[in-house]
Amino acid sequence: MDRRTLNLGILAFGTTVLAARLARAQDVDLDAALKPRIEGDPNAKLTMIEYSSLTCPHCATFHADILPKIRETYIETGKLRLEMRDFPLDQYALRASAMARCAPENRYFP
């Protein structure tokens, strides 16, 4: 995926999220937007904290190749919870992570 395609995808996603927010005419709940995004059982004994950037090719490889195996083996079985933390490496990742945080919690991981 080249940078232009990524930027267009980010722009399309952000426009969709922003339009939905404006249509409802609600303010963004900052406390909800800033709290950690957690996938899996909140009471799992193990917690994996991932710092990732939405424009990092290494993070993309991890999410495409490794994370599905971790999900299947550990997260879906209740052994592990995944906590995502944004670590934007550039202005595009910063904007994309801010837009992703505006989405409802149940839409963050999909």
Description:
The protein is an alpha+beta fold. Helix content is 53%, strand content 15%. The chain contains four helices and three strands. The protein has helices spanning 3-24, 30-34, 57-75, 91-102, and strands at residues 37-39, 46-52, 80-86. The mean pLDDT is 82.
SSE blueprint and pairings:
Elements: H1 3-24, H2 30-34, E1 37-39, E2 46-52, H3 57-75, E3 80-86, H4 91-102
Parallel strand pairs: 2-3
Antiparallel strand pairs: 1-3
Write down the overall geometry.
globular
Query: Rounded to an integer, what's the Rg over CA atoms?
Result: 15 Å
Number of strands: 3
Low-confidence stretches: none
Residues in helix, %: 40-55%
First CA to last CA: what distance? 19 Å
What is the strand content?
15-25%
Per DSSP, the total helix count is 4
| Order of adjacent strands in the largest pleated sheet | 1-3-2
Question: Tags for this entry?
Answer:
110 residues; alpha+beta; three-stranded mixed beta sheet; 53% helix
Quick synopsis:
Helices cover 53% and strands 15% of the residues.
